[in-house]
Specification:
The protein is an alpha/beta fold and 206 residues long. Helices cover 38% and strands 18% of the residues.
């Protein structure tokens, strides 16, 4: 088993500055989050991926992070890194962690994406949907597109379209919606999101 882990966007640099695009943050008028109401998607993504890494380490499952500790590496860099190791070291699967945002800040829920068409990622995405629904379905909104017989949504995201291995991109709720943001900061919800990823990896390779 080998897993490429991706945390979308940038993090906090050594001076505590958020290194990411303006659209990857939102300031709520209540709550603390990452400080004074600010929710930094890239910081949250890294927090979740770190929990996944700890779980994989305990299980002895190999993984490779594609992201930097805080620099917002280009999609090209992350895809090239994954493809190189997939070709030259060990084939694997890719899981990209994100949180969502909407124009009116009223969107809610979990979504999972694969590249368009029938691909090797479809089964991976369906396993993750099932694991997430089992662990969190009574606490979060599950958003799907079942027009093609499964729950994943399809999109031409670069990290899905240009990678060689089965790859999924997970949107863990909407960080610009206060109710969803509060769930994302709930320790138990974070733990269960991380657990869903690890169970997906085990089930896929089994």
């Amino acid at each position: 088993m080998f897993v490429f882990l991706d945390a979308g966007h940038g993090g906090l640099d050594h001076s505590g500055n958020y290194v990411s695009a303006p659209g990857k943050q939102f300031r709520h008028n209540r709550g603390s989050f990452h400080g004074d109401g600010w929710f930094y998607e890239g910081v949250w993504n890294r927090t979740l991926v770190q929990q996944v890494e700890w779980k994989l380490q305990r299980l002895g499952i190999e993984y490779l992070p594609l992201h930097h500790d805080y620099v917002d590496l280009s999609l090209e860099q992350r895809v090239e890194k994954a493809n190189w190791y997939h070709r030259n070291y060990q084939p694997g699967i890719l899981v990209s962690t994100h949180a969502n945002a909407s124009v009116n800040h009223d969107g809610r829920g979990y979504e999972i994406f694969t590249s368009p068409g029938v691909t090797g990622a479809d089964r991976l995405a369906e396993i993750h949907w099932d694991q997430t629904e089992t662990l969190l379905g009574d606490r979060i909104t599950m958003r799907s597109d079942t027009s093609d017989g499964d729950h994943d949504k399809e999109a031409n995201f670069f990290i899905l379209r240009r990678t060689l291995m089965p790859a999924i991109l997970i949107e863990h709720l909407f960080f610009d919606n206060f109710a969803d943001a509060s769930l994302l900061f709930d320790d138990e919800v974070q733990e269960l999101f991380a657990e869903a990823q690890v169970r997906t990896i085990i089930e896929y390779f089994r």
